Target: Bacitracin ABC transporter permease
Amino acid sequence: MKSFLAAFSVESYKLRRSYVLWATLLFIMFVTSLRSVEPDWTSYLGEVTFLFASVFGIMAFGVVMSWVFGREYADRTFKDLLALPVSRSKIVMAKYMSVVLWCLIITLISFGFAIVLGLIVGIPGFSAAIAQHYFILFMLLAVFHLLSCAPIAFLASISRGYLVPIAFAFTTLMVALTVGPTSFGAYLPWSIPALHLKMSDSVVFPLDGISYVILLLIGCIGLISTLVWWRSADQK
Model:
């Protein structure tokens, strides 16, 4: 456990000090500020949450995941990492947990920024109930996106860099925007967050159970594939 905590502390520190994380957050905050002209809080938070569900989550979390798993190859520190007295599985889990932690943190900061900005510009109709409703949606969408981005870690590992996983994240975004409105959208992991938001006015979990099972399976497959590759692949 001590070795895992040490590895997690190091990975968290590297991510916290990276420009990628904070540049991603600044981009989200910038686009959020452009939506502050909405006529009321429901429209404002609804628009911000939709952007997070359809675009921000896929690309932002995908870029962070790509950087965490791809930078060791780009910086040529991969062999040094494997030489540490820490198992490969613990290194992978430490990287995953650091991504989860900091993606949730930037989600919280993004939502907090949206609330503060809305209060500053004086958008009418604010209520705690509205804020609570969209806060719950924001956090659920963050979890969904973290699950759907899990395969990116595997792609970054096998491709030994950033380009393939970032291209994959962009491709899944385009596919989600295209397939999402069709009957197949509920079965495509990268369309599910936006569909969940679209149908969530009346119930907390509006889609059929199979949609959430697919998301969970994608997350598990991505994590397990990355663990297996790191443990068994010939690391040259």
Observations:
- Residues 169 and 208 are 25 Å apart (CA to CA).
- DSSP finds ten helices and no strands in the chain.
- Residues 2-232 form one domain.
- The chain has one domain: 2-232.
